From TrEMBL:
<keyword id="KW-0539">Nucleus</keyword>
<dbReference type="InterPro" id="IPR038051">
    <property type="entry name" value="XRCC4-like_N_sf"/>
</dbReference>
<feature type="region of interest" description="Disordered">
    <location>
        <begin position="185"/>
        <end position="255"/>
    </location>
</feature>
<dbReference type="InterPro" id="IPR015381">
    <property type="entry name" value="XLF-like_N"/>
</dbReference>
<keyword id="KW-0227">DNA damage</keyword>
<feature type="domain" description="XLF-like N-terminal">
    <location>
        <begin position="14"/>
        <end position="114"/>
    </location>
</feature>
<dbReference type="GO" id="GO:0005634">
    <property type="term" value="C:nucleus"/>
</dbReference>
<dbReference type="Pfam" id="PF09302">
    <property type="entry name" value="XLF"/>
</dbReference>
<keyword id="KW-0234">DNA repair</keyword>
<feature type="compositionally biased region" description="Polar residues">
    <location>
        <begin position="185"/>
        <end position="204"/>
    </location>
</feature>
<dbReference type="GO" id="GO:0006303">
    <property type="term" value="P:double-strand break repair via nonhomologous end joining"/>
</dbReference>
<protein>
    <recommendedName>
        <fullName>XLF-like N-terminal domain-containing protein</fullName>
    </recommendedName>
</protein>
């Protein structure tokens, strides 16, 4: 995938599809650049990518329909997100995902044929799914009152998460901030004002990105110890040290 297209897609929140494929929920992102339509689909485990000459493909499938690029994009997007869309000829393997869509709008029938290549690199799954979720969780943990969050309704599922307007907005804000921070970090590195070092377990230094570069800037705490204040941590340390240094008393035997 082109780096510029990938960067634009990263800014877009996943939109849950209105139908299931192979009885699994999917989500999609859409982006038009240079008259080409880029669509990525995911079942939150794999990502499939289609690139097509937008107007040409739309016209070949919908001979009597046309319009501005923006209008056509909205039609295709609604086709993927509508629960009334008919799905046929599903085909999926390790390399690709393929299916046909049909939806009736007024007196017209809209059609689309999706053929997406499987993006084998797990970097796409991490950057488009895992990292945004970790970033969102970090923001919630750091800046929100968790008591105000309602318990999930029994009918909701993980696949519905990105579809919520509040989560979409949070996704966009967090993603943009993350990309800006990363851009500034890359600029500093190129100017030589900031040096990145990676130290392995053998004590050897290697130039390059640190392993922490692949995680959010403010990851959620992994234990209660991480969220304690400095004073509490000192108390906990002294308590642990005292327990270790105190002699173990032998139990008294009673007969």
């Amino acid at each position: 995938m082109d780096a510029n297209v990938n960067a634009e897609l990263l800014k877009i929140c996943w939109a849950p599809l209105g139908f299931k494929l192979a009885n699994k929920p999917y989500a999609a992102k859409f982006h038009v650049k240079a008259e080409q339509l880029h669509i990525i689909l995911t079942d939150y485990e794999c990502i499939y990518y289609e690139i097509a000459d937008f107007v040409k493909k739309f016209s070949s499938l919908n001979a009597k329909l046309g319009g501005p690029e923006k209008t056509l994009l909205e039609k295709v997007r609604n086709m993927f997100l509508s629960p009334t869309t008919k799905v046929s000829d599903e085909s999926k393997n390790d390399k690709a995902l393929e299916f046909n869509l049909e939806i009736i709008v007024g007196k017209r029938t809209l059609k689309w044929h999706f053929f997406g290549q499987h993006l084998n690199s797990m970097d796409y799954v991490f950057s488009h799914i895992t990292r945004p979720l970790l970033n969102i969780l970090s923001v919630i943990v750091d800046g929100c009152d968790l008591s105000s969050i309602n318990a999930p309704v029994s009918n909701t599922s993980f696949s519905d998460l990105f579809g919520k307007p509040s989560v979409q907005k949070l996704y966009e804000v967090v993603t943009m901030e993350s990309m800006i921070a990363e851009s500034i970090g890359n600029t500093n590195t190129e100017d030589g004002s900031e040096e990145s070092m990676n130290i392995d377990t053998g004590g050897n230094n290697h130039d390059g990105k640190s392993s922490t570069d692949f995680f959010p800037a403010t990851p959620p705490p992994t234990s209660t110890y991480e969220v304690m204040s400095d004073t509490d941590q000192d108390k906990e340390f002294r308590k642990t040290q005292t327990m270790c240094e105190s002699p173990v008393k032998k139990p008294r035997l009673r007969f």
